[in-house]
Amino acid sequence: MNSIGVRRSVAAYASLLALTIGPSMHAADCAANTLGPQAANRRLEELGKSAQVEMAQRRFADAIRHLKEAACLAPNDARIFYSLGSAQAASGDFLSARKSLAMADRLQPANPLPLVMLARVNASMSDVDSLKATLSEAAVRFATNSDLHATLAQFLLQNKLFDLALAEALRSHKAGGATAQSVMDLAVLENTVGAYDDAIRNAVSIENQTDLPATLRASAAGIAGLSYESSGQPESAISHLRQAVQLDPSQENSYLALAFLLEKTQQYGEAADVLEQARAKLPRSTQLLLPLGSDLILAEKYAAGIDVLQELVHKTPNEYEAYLKLADAFRKTGANDREIQILIDLENQKPDYPNIHLLLARALLNLEPVDYAKTLDELALAEQGSPLDAEISYLRGRIYMATNHSDEAVIALRRAIELGPMDPGPYYQLGRLYEKLGQTQMAKDTFARMQYLKSNTIQ
Amino acid sequence: MTRRDVLRAGAGVILNPLARASAPQNLSYPLREIQGSLTPPDLFFVRDHFSEPALSLENWQLRIEGRVAHPRDVSFSDLLELPTKKVEAVLECSGNGTHGSAASNSRWEGVPISFLLEPAGMSRDAAFIAFEGGDTGRLVQGPSDLPYTQIVPLEKCLDSASLVAFKMNDLFLPRRNGFPARALFPGWYAMDSVKWLRRIVVLGPNDRHSSFFDNGMDRVYNRVTLSADGIKVKRLSSIQVKSAVAWPPDKMRLPAGAYQMWGFAWTGTGTIREVAISLDDGRTWEPAKLESSPGPYRWVRWTYKWAASTGDYSLMSRATDSQGNQQPLQRDKARKDVYELNWCAPLSCSVR
User: Fold this and answer.
1) pLDDT tens profile B46-87
2) Is the bond leading into B180 cis (omega within 30 degrees of zero)?
3) How many other CB atoms sit within 10 Å of the CB of residue A21?
4) Domain for residue A185, yes or no?
5) CATH code, domain carrying A48
6) What's the CATH fold of domain B3-220?
7) How far apart are CA A208 and CA A150, in angstroms?
8) Distance, in angstroms, between B42 CA and closest chain A CA?
9) Contacting residues of A for B77, CB less than 8 Å apart
10) Each residue of A299-358: pLDDT tens digit?
């Protein structure tokens, strides 16, 4: 871009603000004023009162009409334009609201409220460029107003505009005078964007303030824990999350996060204990059931895990992951018929569940005696959904091997290798098959390829 | 809703799998692990000169000074509240090997550098810009550590695609990729896209920027050519047209069958026009299929259906860009440096 181009782009950006500035009430919009000064003041007072009542009654059109008349009588009164802009925003007329609020801002530039409302209007319009321009303007003119930037941060956070919320939270923090809640908001945002050291510092400062409400301190401890985890310090993470649970035993997320970290460090029994503790405190929670059931199974407490997951499936039939965990538990406990049944239940619940036919085929292969025809049917259905899935050909190859259809088995296993050439499994089965067929050299070559893949020499 | 979703919803949390690093890192990952066309952050290559700095968002500032009328500090909040631009672009280490995976492709978001420079009021004699990172160290013997610095011609800096980037693939930069903000020069080798950016200095045509020259940075990243006229030295800039085979890997042994070779192709000049595949060490070539429409700066995924019969193969891919630049079949013998390694080096593959 040449220098002219640069100037143009900056000018275009600046014009986003200028767009909204300009006389909101043209002379043509106003009837000729025939009132004397006293009568005009009385009329203004009447109009103000009416508009107030109309706004409270959500009669926005009437309020706007009266405020427009007021603006004609007092064209330099910022409060009237602010009220008019607010009424227009409430009625959904954002373009007019933007003009009125810009006028209010121009008339009373030391007051930040018009800019705050303008930011809200721009956010409602999803006009991010204008919103950024408004926030930048507020940053220049009210750099040291910590409360203003904290208010903006809160509003932006509520509207899930996380980047801009972070910008305003940082401005508020820099301006000083931050409240515990605003520091907490900043820590949450810093954790979200990956500024873990900052998040830990801010969160721990809240966690350690014993005069603050336990709920807030618990949230802070939770954020500290998550930031420690993200920065590769699991022991500190677990310690802070335990503290979070202790400070406020009613916060479900603290238990979930703590159990998640314990699970990551393969402390499945402890993870399950934490979630049992949570369940005792929060008996109505269904969010706890899936991780609890899962951790119980990982801790090899199969019966308890199956009970929990069955309760979950009963309460929340669309919690599809629970079906898979149950299938896993049934398989591990040798209850292959129940494994198949729960997968059929899943299919009934959600016929297009990804890979459901492949899952069923796998399960069918574990049932003695194997129903090969049915398994092949499931694989055919699976192939319709995922024609390039190497595992389908691989399982088919194994079935043909087991049923002594060697030619078909060779074709299927070679197809599995074509589709997934880096997976040693099909090479192994194909090598076995060649061995069985007496094709010693082919078997040797195929096993060599498998060993090659397993040898980690491929970079 | 998964448990991870619950955690995110509860605290707006991203559980970052990237561990904290303290020493300079040199990481790359097999291209075959990339699904689609964008390199995910945990597979993005890393080449550090010095240790990652510990930067705080709360006091991070980008200083803009030098030949400007109004030196200024830009905070992270300022960056977030300025208009941004998104660019999908490859970054490639200038020393990336012929089969090397020190190249990655991401969708970047940031503020155009021109946008940050304009309010500072550059002087008329501005010719170059120095970019300094927050990482410090010594490339050569010297009295003290100096910040990692690169100098980029003004024209490239004013290109609308040149950014101070703070996001990749819609997430904030991971620390090891330059958090909180880095320079980004699409189409140029990655050493100029300075990570952990802290300072931008506008330079005149003859200004000597100490952290660049005193640290010996002028002695690396140069194209050195020996000819009858003597040695020519030229600063590296645009990425040379290149392609890489993601699959099969070198020395692969396969049974005969129908396979799909695939990989990526990219260039710093124009767009990729075509990719050709040779199975016989460059004697014959067949076209590969480009999986998406090529665009400037970004790489394009290519595929080639290979009916592999028994034999020993020497596989090569060769890209040509819209400006007619084509990968050479071998390294220019006059080159005396270790950069721009874009010739078509073969991969061996045995099919039985």
Assistant:
1) 999 999 998 889 889 999 999 999 999 999 999 999 999 999
2) yes
3) 14
4) no
5) 1.25.40.10
6) Sulfite Oxidase; Chain A, domain 2 (3.90.420)
7) 22
8) 13
9) 139, 166-168, 170-171, 174
10) 999 999 999 999 999 999 999 999 999 999 999 999 999 999 999 999 999 999 999 999
